[in-house]
Design a protein that fits this description.
Strand order of the largest sheet: 6-5-4-1-15-16
CATH topology of the largest domain: Purple Acid Phosphatase, chain A, domain 2
Largest sheet: 6 strands, mixed
Number of helices: 11
Distance between the termini: 88 Å
CATH class of the largest domain: Alpha Beta
Length: about 400
């Protein structure tokens, strides 16, 4: 069986106030084409379909178009779970009606979708994101107080309901159906923060601290775990426990990441081979470094000036209208950063200057250090003193 694993589309997201909907549509066109070209048997979408629980209308239309092309146009079943950005109730609307067409939505409760290949059935255990309190209330288990316990309970209850009487397997470790000649192949689809994963700036923390972490052994006994939430494509422990990563780069710290989807092939024994297939971005996300003059001169040879750009300036001293000058060359320059400025300000917020207790020369020296990271030279100090004298003289002169 061949599967396409994707997650974290975040439809409707903005990047520094710029809508990414056209960029998302460009990537999804490639995903739909790949699903057909790779002859996958199903698409697994592991949560954070939308960027917020009440998505904009255009984002809903884009999802509707994409799923229609996959399910109706290409005849490929799609399994979708809600992530922490989604409203499970909204995402799961009409799920019972849509199942007959091949669209399987798990909005608020786990469900099992059984697919089949030449070697027999494969159970896809789809577990939407849920707060521990919600899982505890649904299962009646008051001992569920963190995400690890909640996920284990959901995986165990869903697999037990699908397989009927089983030999004991333990939470997160499905057992075997009695009298079955071989273990039934199972795939987990989950939106969670699995311990050991590498994060990105664009992810919304599930909770403060470590209460959101789940252990990778939750997925022991599953042939493959299709994970969502972390935006960097990566495996956790064994190769078959994997984050596909987000559809696009959603922060500048993802600039060097290679975004992709995972095409997974599962054999009769449940062993997996995995291929990461890159998606070409409509506009890349890049960080440019150097002085303003250096960036301006380098732009002439830059063939990708429409990319989303953060300019990290190395200039010493004041820079006038850096954003305006850069946007004349890079129309999608979204942010200008002065590294030394931020480094100095971040060292000790308690050491702020009290304007009422310092002279103008002391304030100038503090400001100069704040901007440049260095003390003013004698010439610079004299220039300030001369300018201050001239301002005072002008203020005392009669109009």
């Amino acid at each position: 069986m061949r599967l396409l694993h994707t997650s974290d589309w975040h439809l409707g997201r903005s990047f520094f106030g710029v809508s990414l909907l056209e960029d998302q549509a460009h990537a999804l066109d490639q995903l739909v084409a790949l699903a057909s070209e790779a002859a996958v048997d199903a698409v697994l979408l592991a949560g954070d379909v939308y960027d917020r629980s009440s998505p904009p209308t255009d984002a809903v239309r884009l999802l509707d178009d994409t799923l229609t092309r996959l399910v109706v146009g290409a005849g490929i079943p799609v399994v979708v779970i809600a992530g922490n950005h989604d409203s499970g109730e909204r995402l799961g609307f009409g799920s019972r009606l849509l199942t007959e067409r091949g669209l399987h939505l798990a909005g608020t409760q786990p469900r099992v979708v059984t697919l089949g290949d030449a070697f027999g059935p494969i159970d896809v255990v789809a577990v939407p994101f849920a707060e521990p309190a919600a899982t505890a209330a649904r299962t009646g288990d008051a001992t569920i107080v963190n995400h690890d316990a909640a996920l284990r309970a959901d995986l165990a209850s869903a697999t037990a309901a699908a397989a009927g009487p089983e030999q004991p397997g333990g939470p997160g470790k499905p057992g075997r159906k009695k009298d079955s000649p071989s273990p039934r192949r199972r795939i987990a689809v989950s939106h969670a923060f699995v311990s050991g994963g590498s994060t990105s700036e664009s992810e919304r923390p599930l909770v403060m601290g470590n209460a959101a972490l789940v252990a990778a052994d939750c997925f022991d006994g599953f042939a493959y775990a299709a994970l969502g939430h972390l935006h960097r494509p990566q495996r956790i422990g064994r190769n078959a426990v994997r984050y596909s990563g987000s559809l696009l780069k959603y922060s500048f710290d993802e600039a060097t990441q290679r975004k992709s989807v995972s095409v997974v092939e599962i054999d009769a024994a449940g062993s997996c081979t995995i291929e990461e297939v890159a998606l070409a971005a409509r506009r890349d996300v890049r960080i440019l470094e150097g002085t303003l003059d250096e960036l301006q001169r380098a732009s002439a040879a830059d063939t990708s000036r429409d990319d989303y750009v953060l300019a990290r300036l190395a200039d010493r001293g004041a820079v006038i209208d850096a954003m305006g000058k850069l946007r004349a060359l890079y129309p999608n320059c979204l942010h200008v950063q002065r590294d030394e400025f931020f480094a100095v300000r971040g060292e000790d917020e308690a050491a702020r200057v009290d304007l009422r207790r310092h002279s103008e020369s002391e304030l100038f020296d503090a400001f100069f250090r704040d901007v440049t990271g260095e003390a003013a030279s004698d010439d610079e100090t004299r220039a300030f003193a001369d300018a201050l004298t001239a301002v005072r003289r002008a203020a005392t002169e009669d109009p």
